[in-house]
């Protein structure tokens, strides 16, 4: 499991991310990343999950959630294949 929290305020910008690489059979992982922005600050997250063909069962992917900030602006994140 991987946990991450990014806190920004004022005019700060945080660019965070995670790489998870699966090289064995029957492997799985969980990535939980949260960003909290105050004022005019911004958070961005980039993630990569790589699965090598050696494994006989691939882990299941769960769709990323929709985030809504205090102004009602929506930021969606989609997996890149």
UniProtKB/TrEMBL annotation:
Source domain of life: Bacteria
GO biological process terms on file: iron-sulfur cluster assembly
Family, per entry: Belongs to the iron-sulfur cluster assembly SufBD family.
Species the sequence originates in: Salmonella enterica I
Coiled-coil segments on the chain, per record: none
Family annotation (Pfam families): SUFBD_core
Protein name as catalogued: Iron-sulfur cluster assembly protein SufB
Domain SUF system FeS cluster assembly SufBD core: 2-55
């Amino acid at each position: 499991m991987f946990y991450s929290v990014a806190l920004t305020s004022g005019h700060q910008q945080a660019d965070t991310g995670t790489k998870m690489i699966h090289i064995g059979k029957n492997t799985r992982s969980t990535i939980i990343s949260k960003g909290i922005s105050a004022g005019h600050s911004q958070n961005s997250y980039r993630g990569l999950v790589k699965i090598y063909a050696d494994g006989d069962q691939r882990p299941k992917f769960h769709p990323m959630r929709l985030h809504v900030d205090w102004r009602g602006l929506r930021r969606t994140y989609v997996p890149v294949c």
